[in-house]
């Protein structure tokens, strides 16, 4: 005799889903307000930028702010492409090495036992408590003693040792089942192969999240404390010098804010799908 299985219908309603969508849409619009405001400011003429009370949306859009920015860029005695190259090089190299070092160290901390393991991780947690302003003077003294002033290393090396990346990757590495790693070792895979072909694909969401944090931090880094050579300065430093002349450059400053926001936002949009992945999409199934 066949037994009929009663299907369980989900306890959902059309009106409930509609309310949820409206509430989430309201929160999304509220969170998008700073982005919309920055875009509108970039196309406001000077009289609207200094209007009080300020208007949220632009009334008479203009491209004068962007033209003024490019004029100021071309008047610099150092080619502006040099500033862009410095920032892109520091951001790409620093983020790439930081992701590799943080994931490799996190794998050792999470999946291997060695003397001083807990002490080392406690030091990483302790480092998270210090503000960058507290460590600014020690960093400068160390970099000065190493002879790294006026070099890319002054900005790249401290970014590689950022404790947040190691903490994030270590916490995510602990979720990897030990049995999965042991299976790869029994198949003859070396430890580096296990890390590269088994562990890294599983922690890809955390790795992409770390990429967003590291990229944003390095892209917006001023670096004026360590870099004095004009040809080695970063893009944020050059843009700050442009708008430091006074209120007449307020339009260019609005265009700069939009320009500096586009690249990190693009990286986030590209990486968003990977960040939202779960452990189940990486080959681990119940």
From TrEMBL:
Q: Does the keyword Transmembrane apply?
A: yes
Question: Which InterPro entries does the UniProt record give?
Answer: MetI-like, MetI-like_sf
Q: Which residues form the ABC transmembrane type-1 domain?
A: 84-271
Alphabetical keyword list: Cell membrane, Membrane, Transmembrane, Transmembrane helix, Transport
Report if keyword rRNA processing is assigned.
no
A Pfam family the protein falls into: BPD_transp_1
Highest taxon in the source lineage: Bacteria
What is the membrane topology here? Multi-pass membrane protein
Indicate what this protein is called per its UniProt record.
Carbohydrate ABC transporter permease
Source species, please? Perspicuibacillus lycopersici
């Amino acid at each position: 005799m066949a037994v009929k299985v009663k299907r369980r219908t989900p306890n959902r309603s059309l009106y409930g889903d509609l309310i949820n969508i409206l509430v989430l849409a309201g929160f999304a619009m509220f969170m998008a307000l700073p982005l919309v405001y920055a875009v509108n400011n970039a196309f406001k003429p000077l009289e609207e930028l200094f209007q009080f009370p300020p208007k949220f949306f632009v009334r008479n859009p203009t491209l004068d702010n962007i033209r003024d920015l490019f004029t100021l860029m071309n008047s610099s005695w150092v080619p502006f492409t040099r500033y862009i190259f410095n920032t892109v090089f520091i951001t790409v190299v620093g983020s790439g090495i930081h992701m590799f070092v943080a994931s490799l160290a996190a794998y050792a901390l999470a999946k291997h036992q060695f003397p001083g393991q807990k002490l080392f991780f406690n030091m990483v947690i302790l480092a998270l408590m210090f503000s960058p302003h507290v460590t600014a003077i020690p960093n400068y003294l160390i970099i000065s003693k190493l002879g790294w002033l006026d070099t890319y290393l002054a900005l790249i090396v401290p970014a590689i040792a950022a404790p947040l990346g190691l903490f994030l990757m270590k916490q995510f590495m602990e979720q990897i089942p030990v049995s999965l790693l042991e299976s790869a070792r029994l198949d003859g895979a070396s430890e580096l192969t296990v890390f590269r072909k088994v562990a890294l694909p599983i922690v890809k969401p955390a790795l992409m999240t770390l990429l967003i944090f590291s990229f944003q931090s390095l892209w917006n880094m001023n670096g004026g404390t360590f870099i004095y050579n004009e040809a080695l300065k970063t893009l944020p430093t050059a843009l700050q010098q442009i708008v430091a002349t006074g209120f007449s450059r307020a339009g260019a400053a609005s265009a700069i804010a939009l320009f500096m926001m586009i690249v990190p936002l693009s990286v986030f949009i590209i990486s968003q799908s990977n960040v939202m992945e779960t452990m189940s999409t990486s080959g681990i199934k119940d």
